[in-house]
Amino acid sequence: MHEAILRRQSLRESAARTYARSLPIVPVRARGLTIEGADGRRYLDCLSGAGTLALGHNHPVVLEAIKKVIDSGAPLHVLDLATPVKDAFTTELFATLPRRFADNARIQFCGPAGTDAVEAAFKLVRGATGRSGLLAFTGAYHGMTEGALAASGGAEDVRVTRLPFPRDYRCPFGVGGERGAELSARWTENLLDDPKAGTAAPAGMILEPVQGEGGVNPAPDSWMRRMRAITEDRSVPLIADEVQTGVGRTGAFWAIEHSGVVPDVMVLSKAIGGSLPLAVIVYRSELDTWQPGAHAGTFRGNQLAMAAGTATLAFVRENRLAERAATLGARMLARLQALATDHPVVGDVRGRGLMIGIELVDPEATAPGDGPEPPPAPALAAAVQQECLRRGLIVELGGRHSTVVRLLPPLTLTDEQATAVVDRLADALAAAERLPHCRITTGSIR
Ligand code: PMP
To answer: Whole-structure pTM over 0.90, yes or no?
Structure first.
């Protein structure tokens, strides 16, 4: 069955298939961290639906919440009508948001994907400011629909001005740390204030507090506060894309809480639906200049997702899973950093909470432009992912050239499971290093 399903998938599904290529698994059962394939193999899932599964697969509170709605006879499809299920979701969501933000906020239920909410955020700030340009960052990922894609790092768009996202490793200014972040902020300020910069006043700035797909790049808290001050002083709405960082993932319920920044708009999806599709924007009520019907969509009322989401948000809040993510994440990060001492191919280990990245490099090759960091090693990263899979561990690749091994385990991860994940990863790394095609510089981008 396993082989036949995979064969039919590759014959029938589009060439844009992504995860299915590097993870040839046919999941048939799942619980918590574990997925079982049709071939009977079991895997520890550190991809978690690209960071969606805050509580892992099929958590009892999530299943219970879904069953309760079904058993109650409540309608499953209601467009954007009010229901007790939706009312409970909004109440729980607002209770988790910073008070200063939630006390004067509105919510818009969007189409079901993160990218739908990003589009809604852009439309909102464009309508409210009467401007069209946007500020976005290098390495960003906001989705695959046209506007969201244009704001992502790989795209070009005349309405998007690209700013340097601060990074310690491969810092665009070659200095890293606080100084690199300071230079990034100064560049932003300069662009906005220089009448000859070629940048019209923007409708908004969008940023991820920790870039996910871009290779796990945490923004320094001081830089986040600078971005808030710069945008506030110039009446530019700040949009925090917390699609991936939200619901405890980074060690705070919302990643903006690390810096204390209150944005104008928050874009939320993934974990808020408790593993089912749900996406919203929450924003400062003064921005709500929309006319009735200005932003619509058939699938804005997914009752099962709202119920699953309410249960997830409440469970994370009541069990202090954000704090747990901070502690456990720090421990895993330390162990992985220790690994870097024995493996020169580990160029950098970074992250926040349970959002962790390991950047693989070719230490024997010289960096392009003679920068201090060795060039990335995509062939090695792909081999590590495959060796992890052979050892029953699912990891994701991200970042420039897909050379950052990413870990996004559920926040319910136990200490023992965390140890097993790191052990398997260390083993996979050692095995990949020994592979002939990964030992030499052919795997790197020069
Ligand atoms: N924003 C961020 C930060 C994301 O990580 C993602 C998805 N990885 C999106 C937006 C887009 O979400 P979706 O894939 O649900 O459209």
So the answer is: yes
